[in-house]
Amino acid sequence: VAEQLGLVWAYLPTGQRLSTPFLNVSRAVLTSPWEGDERGFLGLAFHPRYRLTGKVYVYYSVQLRQEERVRISEFRVSSGDPNLLDHHSERIILEVEEPASNHNGGQLLFGADGFLYIFIGDGGMAGDPFGEHGNAQNRSVLLGKVLRIDVDDNDRGPLYRVPPDNPFVGERGARPEVFALGVRNMWRCSVDRGEAGTGRGRGRILCGDVGQNKFEEVDLLQSGGNYGWRAREGFVCYDKTLCKNSTLNDILPIFAYPHSMGKSVTGGYVYRGCESPNLNGFYIFGDFMSGMLMALSETDSGSWQSHKICMGQGQTCSFPGLINNYHQYIISFAEDEAGELYFLSTRIPSATSPTGVVYKIVDPSRRAPPRKCRYQPRPVKVRSQLINFVPEAKLIVKQPEKQGPRVETEPEGEGGTSQDWFRKLLEELEQMLSERRRSDARPDPTLAPRGGRRPGRKRGRPGAGRAGGGKIGRA
């Protein structure tokens, strides 16, 4: 589990956390305590042959003199402890200058082809105001793009190579690393493992792209694809002049939703686990600002249907928006080795707020037989002290029966719904009122000190921690 401040923690399958961070680059990471600051440690990806290479790739914000950049670096595992990275092994693979403090991107992942995909935002501010057509439509810059590079066999020679089948290789003026363009600020993308048996969907990459004024969208990544920004936002025109340019050949999203539902999409995963068979094939994602969980299901014709999910404790789905006390700000999703899904959220969207929580997604309406999903993780040698995991509560997530399966999310461990739900309702109402009184009395943490510089705010991506894939536990 990665924190925006630059700490990465390793958790065991038991939920215990190692006391020594897997990685600590907090001294190098650029971020701040202000709510809404998107800069920080933003992503992590293990090499697909990690057991052989021992390599991990990270994405974080830095400041060099007066210039802000996003940095993609490579680390190796420590020769003395398999649960630590060697901090002296860092090699900077790529840096990209950021003209503003928001829209930093942050996703790293390895595709089914073995190449490293890097998702970089459009450079920040509003409306991508850089140049005649904006950064996202300018093929000569890396901002507002999805990059695809080869980091294999890089111990000698260049730190990365460009795959020869990248779509703009050989095009005059275009950066050969570019795999797709027209991206505003894709936040959380994932590779579909594919349907067991048929392999349907295997290797495809789905992303959430944060919108500007009206719409959030989910995209299916294609080589050479132009996802429309800043000509389009969702299915509609944003820049009417660019929108009329037929040469853009925009790829429309598979799903878009208006800001009445949420204002900052957080991309998720297609469920391919064993424990919740009714969820198989559902793309589960959320919205950072509204705290909504949502799902998409693919039809036989290739179109996608959306499903809303009600989230709350006990019987509280009967009172939507009234007494839900889950952590609202959904920051990231992750998948474990068995294909089970998790999401990370926080109560206060600040890098320094210790309120991050990791929930596991399960379906209470239909559970796989216990013996069918026995997963035996490999033994882990531990040299540092263990910190026990203490689950707090069960979180029920319901989906209307007409729209698909029910979903439940819970920290692993004990938990249950009280039968005396009315008593529980009164307790939760009292807790909500108590928290509201304390919140009203607390000074506003978003106000910068007099004379200080407050970084640019974004509707999307702040948070107390970020799940970078791999091992998951409680933040």
Automatic annotation (TrEMBL):
Taxonomy, superkingdom: Eukaryota
Q: Where is the composition biased (Basic residues)?
A: 451-461
Region entry Disordered: which residue ranges? 400-420, 432-475
Q: Which organism is it from?
A: Callorhinchus milii
InterPro entries the UniProt entry points to: 6-blade_b-propeller_TolB-like (IPR011042), Glc/Sorbosone_DH (IPR012938), Quinoprot_gluc/sorb_DH_b-prop (IPR011041)
Name of the protein in question: HHIP-like protein 1
Show the PANTHER family listed in the entry: HEDGEHOG-INTERACTING PROTEIN, HHIP-LIKE PROTEIN 1
Compositionally biased spans, kind Gly residues? 462-475
Where does the record place Basic and acidic residues bias? 400-409, 432-443
Q: Could you tell me which residue ranges the Glucose/Sorbosone dehydrogenase domain spans?
A: 34-299
